[in-house]
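Fold it.
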Amino acid sequence: MEKTWVKDIKEGERVKGIFAVARKAVPTAKSGKTYLAATLVDRTGEIEARSFDRVDEFSALFEERDLVEVEGAIGSFQGKPQLRFETISRIDPATAGIDAADFAWAPPPEPRKPEKAPSEGATDANWAELLGLVEAITDVHVKDLVKAFLADDDLVSRLRRAPAAKSVHHAYAGGLLEHTVSCIKLSHRVADQYPQLDRDLLVAGAFFHDLWKIRELGYERGVEYTDEGRLVGHLVMAAQWIHEKARRVGVPRELEQHVVHLVLSHHGRLEFGSPKTPATLEALVTHFIDDLDSRMNSWVSLMGREGGTRRWTDAQNVYGHHIWRGTLPTAQVEKKAPPAEFMTPVIYVPRPSASGPSQRKPQEKKAKPPRPPRAEPRPASAGADATATPSEGSPPAAPPRPERTEAPPRAERPPRQDRPDRGGPRGPGGPGDRKPRYTGPRLPGDRGPSARPDKPKSLTHNPFAALAAKVEAARPEPVAEPAAEPQAEAPIHETHETAPEAPPQAPPVEPAPAPAAPSEPSAAPGTTAPAGGDATP
């Protein structure tokens, strides 16, 4: 049976052939039903295949990276051919006598340079270029480190036939070597433009940044991640391997750290898989060189997959948008670079900006005002040694505290009934008299220590104020008693005995509804009431 190649499949035909399964999935459609989706490849290209019936039956017949013989009708989806599964059967390549190279798919050549298709001759040319670029390294330690890896026969064998990625860029045999050589050439071109860059470190970053894709990807039959690649990744594997080789070759520790940093940071951002972001000029340029070369290869491959004269690629790609592939509106002739005298290097030197330095100056600390001198110590009390001075280096002694003197005895307070009555329902005084700052309602008869100005009547009815006014109006005015005449002092020569002092009487209990009339004034303080006779000293 004649082999059916993917590139020869057209819409409306029926196809029966053997292909390799690059991808397989059972997604769920918007309707909620599942369907079988697979990508079939051979060395000429790839085609999408679908099955909306018998999903479980067909899905159990094969896995990714298997060879299958399929039969079905070719339809179209979004302008591309699509196979509808009718029959599927798994093929054993050992018993069928099939060449595995027929199913190692590679992107089609660039549309403007179809003669540059990946081939064994192109791989040999890239390898020769790599050896020449390595010999141009000036730093002895960098050159010895690179040559230590090229002396590994297993590494060289893998590097010459390994892809650089699974599907995005340089995803074909020899793609990693092509990507590495291209990045080293870009490093030299960028170093010519910016002399501040270290040329040897740029070359080392271009050589090492993706080298461990040889272990991260398996490419015996199709391209797939290995277990080590999924668990560790080529960035960490590179750091480990560089450390091992650098110890054997005798690379200085500081140089080793810079080379490892180039590898760990070449993805540019943490969310893109780099454990470190670029921290040196060489690491920053290595990241951009890798991104530039990989995107150029990826975009040109997407442009080459479209057939006919379409001006735009399909938006169903890793970038999620259309890419222009039509003719550009410029003269389509060979365009040469300017003369060498105009392609001089660019040297950037630090210059202060017009508005002053961009960095903020550190704020000067304001000097604290001097502390006032300490107060003179109080004079020492009697009996203390005022002339004693503290020893040198010891803190000054606190001034001695003055001795406490006995307070004079407080005068005996007179009984409560002896206090003058100032009016009020609760005896002497009222709330306003006891609390000079009291601002609440005042009780009837509570005059307070000072007269208050009359306040304007409030527009709001206050029942308590009305009741207080009625009680105040009904209270009888006290009758003033004539003052008692002072008693004449007894002559000193009289020797009459003084009568014993009468015990203090309890204050009279006043009725609750209305205050009683004030009692007669008591004797003046400091005198004793006579008991049956004149008072004598």
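The two ends are 156 Å apart (CA to CA).
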